[in-house]
Amino acid sequence: MKLSSQEFELLRKYIHDICGLAISDNKAYLIRQRLEPLAMAHGCNTFSEFYQLISRSSLPMLQEKIINAITTNETSFFRDGHPFAAFEEHILPKLGKMICDRKARPTPRKGPKVRLWSAGSSSGQESYSLAMLIQEYAAANRHLSISEEDFGILATDISSKVLSRAMTGEYSEAEIKRGLSPDRSAKYFKKAGQRWTINSSIRSMVEFRQINLVRPFGMLGGFDVIFCRNVLIYFDNSTKTRVIDQFFNMLSQEGILILGATENVYGISDRFDSVHHGPTLLYRKCV
Ligand SMILES: C[S@@+](CC[C@H](N)C(=O)[O-])C[C@H]1O[C@@H](n2cnc3c(N)ncnc32)[C@H](O)[C@@H]1O
Questions:
Q1: CATH class, range 5-70
Q2: 55-59, 129-133, 249-253: least confident range
Q3: Whole-structure pTM value
Q4: C-alpha to C-alpha distances, 174 to 104, 161, 166, 185, 241, nearest whole angstrom
Q5: For 78-102, what is each residue's pLDDT tens digit?
Q6: What H or E segment, with its residue span, contains residue 226?
Q7: Domain coordinates of the chain in residue numbers?
Q8: pLDDT confidence bin for 267, thresholds 50/70/90
Q9: Residue of 63, 157, 211, 228 to test ligand 1 pocket, by largest number of atoms within 8 Å of CB
Q10: Separation of CA 226 and ligand 1 centre (Å)
Q11: Do 82-285 and 5-70 fall under one CATH topology?
Q12: Looking at the domain 82-285, which fold is it?
């Protein structure tokens, strides 16, 4: 199906409005490749007809299908390795101390003592990788009365398609081989045929919700760690600024923000300091 420059402009504005994705001039093929099957399935012979269909009436189901089709959901367990090493070696001991301090308060709050958020979690590998590290840390620190229940992990994404996959906790052999050691695959998964299903003890540590980062999300409450990796690269600077400002407001005073390897807050926000842990940049609120 041909995509004229006018159709491209209309569709990229529509996509930017619903999910923040900024599609650059040289990426018209993304719209063509990813939306053409949807347009045809809805009986449209041209992208103009498709645009008329989506702009004529509010069609939440169609909007959801467009989001599912246009987002890039690339992910893997322990993606890039080093952010998870930083989490294990640097952040988890700090969270352990936070947990002990918060439990020692005269009126400790009920529920998890520290909260983590995987924002733009795709099919769940990032949040489950964190859950595995937390379970291993808790097992090694029972003498401090630290347990998995002290950690709350929220994983969110805009795409209903990847979220429902994440919730099943089922992965293909290829997905398991990308990032998981044989030890962890055997320890945390059950294999049936070609499908690997995550253990309920890890699955139950993660709560999944559909959240659009370009809409207000302050109602999610406060967090001690926010992982938002390989999501902001798809946004323009004004959208990045709005998202980062909300992260700032939601992070606890000692909270840490981790972005993807090619992302940073420079030119976006001057309210964070960064420290290196190996190649990983950890952002904290400026004091
Ligand atoms: C490339 S994946 C990154 C997954 C994971 N964080 C990682 O680094 O492996 C980007 C994810 O961001 C999600 N995303 C894109 N726009 C979003 C938005 N406006 N709100 C929430 N999630 C969004 C996509 O659906 C996709 O699953």
A1: mainly alpha
A2: 55-59
A3: 0.97
A4: 45, 19, 16, 12, 36
A5: 999 999 999 999 999 999 999 999 9
A6: strand 223-228
A7: 5-70, 82-285
A8: very high
A9: 157
A10: 14
A11: no
A12: Rossmann fold (3.40.50)
